[in-house]
Amino acid sequence: MKASPSLHSVKFWLLQADHCSQALPTEVLDNILQYLPKSELLLLLQNSRLFHNVAKRVLYHTIDSEELDLVQCITVLLKLDHEPGLQPLVRRLFINWATSPMRSGSQEPIPNSMLTRNVYCLLHRVLTKLNGLMALSIELLPADSLSQTWILDNCTFSLRYFSTSMPCDTRLARYLDTQLSLTDLTLRGLYQQGGNVLPLYHEFVGPDMAENTFKILPTSLPKLSSFRIVHGGPGIISSVVKGRPVKVVSIALYAPTSSQSLEVLSLSAAPIQRLTIMSFDHRAVHNHLLIELARFPHLEALHLVLLASDYTNESLCALGPLLSPFKSLQYFTFMANTNPVAQWHKERAIAKIWHQSCPTLKTIILPSGDVWLAGAPFH
Asked: Which site in 19, 210, 367, 374 is 20 to 30 Å from 160, CA atoms measured?
């Protein structure tokens, strides 16, 4: 893998090139200028006739609200709304108003009163004009996430990547039905019960409204290969995964639907190759979990983060034989509370046992955070 050029070398080349009568091909210029920070691109945009158009294209290719405060973000959206020449340049748009600061250099979060309907109307207008958009992320304040799905109405772009905190409801399902080129989907899945937004760790106590209304058409998302969901049960997971070539999955497990959420992953039209699980289920038992995961024999990477259960070194050693069904597993992460606290020499013994049961393992990460590589500390 080639090393990225230093900022100094990029600036030096630009100073030399600015005096040249001939410019390099556009593709080469794009590749060079992408290493400049936004502040340098702005200076180049304002002070160089030679690089003005290229700098503008690179600057607007990706817009990330986490690099801006709220006022700056709104200013950029207004500029996009009023300048048609800029709209085709935007390929990636990331809006995070859930954690972004209100002012530059401040940790103060955006208050609800700042995000008025006019701001959301502005975002909606801009989205309807970004016909070339390929990646979109929209993370809103929890209260707003439940009421602003309409900002996706009448959008004509064809996404490859989409992430949102909007609720998994009928309106979002109908929007996803229009995205035939989508390959990567993240749903945070906030939902409402009794007028309240339920927190991430809330236990599923039965089919919630989202489970009943979030139904994607069988012909939708034909290219979907990667799916992540933070807060959703088996109904939502099934609706997304069933009959689609999903190979990469990241899910959170909650009581009492953990087993069902894992079971519906088998509905994918392709074998699951990479699986990340974050479990909030206090009933989760490590050996039962691995037994259930044996239905995915083609796994190449498995990452387990078990937040609500404690494990001993002895119980971790006992996991070894349960890894034998995974004939393609190369990367295994197991993070959990251990009692007693994991010690280096004991984790080394655990890693050795696991590798003996699953010889294809190349990398093991255990609760202490140490990385064990095949051929190095295993033996």
From this structure: 210
